[in-house]
């Protein structure tokens, strides 16, 4: 083949490959946008919510801010079309998150019954307070897996509602409907339960079935951007930001300890990924998405209900279990633990992307020892051919190495 012909062929092949890559990128972008929510849909949802507040169908301590004073201003929808509703807003110049499992109040189960009487009028019937509080108690027990004393139920209702309400005072229909819609959202209950713990966002209040909470994004620390698409230059500076990433990793380890001690049962994290955690200004991590978090008793019920022919059949997202091949039933006991999931999906990296983990490119002084500890964390050594969970000793080793790296860098700051 003549040199000129070969050169033309190479140009043709290069142009063809470039076109295919461009089309692939455009397709991915289109699919992403197709699954994202539309801002107008979110605005319509909030408009409907405010209309219901005006008609006294819903209420909440932040309804006036959202619907009357308009001090809570919608900025952007953040959820996928088929997922829960998550919106970014500004409240007196501070960024906050508006969140609800469903868009409309009518999508939640109602405790209020309505019927038409003989004169054609709509009659509304609501439970008395004793019945309502008993329903609330059962709902809390289903999530926490412990029996809640009656006095604690009333205290919990007062804490969550954040509006004037005297014990034994009958709630209005709007109040009962709004509060009950919130109580049906497991994520809301989980975050409310952990209020006061620094690793969970603050809940400021609610309006109807939407609650407003602290905005703590993952940022570039947990979700790094590799390139600046305007300049084409690398953004990640693996060496210079080590101290920041090490402090965030230490916060993760403290968070894991809290999950085992805050409640009578440990909390299992089954959906561990960077975007489910935020990083505050003081580098404290916060669990901002806990849809797939379960206390021990509920976790056992989930894992032990499946039939199986192999271990992989028993996995529930990132919470793994084992298959009893004799009974062909999944074990109710989790095979891995939270530390393993954090090490694999956060510290080392996720989705097979190289050098993407939080603890990428550690200082040379600890690199070999840290990488060895992380490998042991992700795939603990087996004992008698039985898989093991990442141990507390491994957690302490990683913690000590991170502290050592920070102490050695102090004179250079």
TrEMBL record:
Record domain FAM69 N-terminal: where: 2-160
Q: What is its main location?
A: endoplasmic reticulum
Task: Give me the segments passing through the membrane.
Answer: 12-32
GO cellular component terms attached to this protein's record: endoplasmic reticulum membrane
Hydrolase as UniProt keyword: no
Q: Which key words tag this protein in UniProt? A: Disulfide bond, Endoplasmic reticulum, Membrane, Signal-anchor, Transmembrane, Transmembrane helix
- Domain of life, per lineage: Eukaryota
**InterPro entries xref list:** FAM69_kinase_dom, FAM69_N, Kinase-like_dom_sf
Family in the record: Belongs to the DIPK family.
- What protein am I looking at? FAM69C protein
- The protein's organism comes out as Branchiostoma lanceolatum
